[in-house]
Amino acid sequence: MLSSSRCAMCYLVICLSILVGCEKESAPPQAVAAEPASIQIAVCDLDKIANELGYIDQLNQILTRQQTLLGNEIRKLDATGQAALNEKLEAVGEFPDDEQKRELAILQSQARQLVLQAQNRARQDFARMRANLVQQIRTKIKKPVDQVATKKGINIVISDRAESVLFTASAANITSEVLSAARNANLGKLELGESDDDRKTPESRSEGSELRGEKTEGPLESSDPAEESSLFSE
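The structure corresponding to this sequence follows.
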C-alpha cells in the first residue's frame, strides 16, 4: 500500500514538471533590443593637405602682395600730407605769428590723423582678405573630405591637431586619402574677392573713418600673413 502511494506521488510530480515545462516553452520570447549603430570617427590633417596642394604658398603670396600695395598707399598719403605741411611752412616764413602756429599745428594733426585712420582701415581690410582666403581653402578641402567620408561610411571627421587629438589609430587617419581625392578633383586656385569698399583708396576710407570716429591702430607693416599656427583654428 505504501509502495503504491509513493508511485502515485512520483507520477504527480512528473506530471507537474511536464506542465511547467510546457508553460515555459509556450511563453512569448522577449523582444531583443536592437544594438545602436556604431559611430565611425576619423581624423584629417587639413593644414597638411592645404600645404601639399599649394594653398599655403598661394595664401602668403596674395597677402604679401596686398600688404605691399596697402603699405605703399599709406606712405603716399603720408607724403601728401607732409608736402601740404611743408608748403604751409614756406608760406608763413621763419617767424609765424601765434595764429599761424595754431594753423600749422592743426594741419599737422589732421595729416597725422588721416594716416593713422588709413592704417587702421588697411589692417581691417587685410584681416578680411585673409579670412576670405582661408574660408576658400576650407570650402575647397571640404569637398574631398565629404567624398572620402561618404565612401568609407564615416559619420564624423575632425581636424588632426595635437592639442585636441591625443591618440589616432592609423586606420582612422584619412589624410592621405583626402589628399589624393583633392588632387584628382582639381579644386582650383585661390581668388581675392573685391568689394566696393576694397577698391577705395586709403584717403577715401580715412574720410569715412573720421566721420565714424573709428579707433586707430598701429602700422600695417606689423601684420604677418602667417600669424596663425593653423588655418583651421577657431
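Residues 196-219 have pLDDT under 50 and may be disordered.
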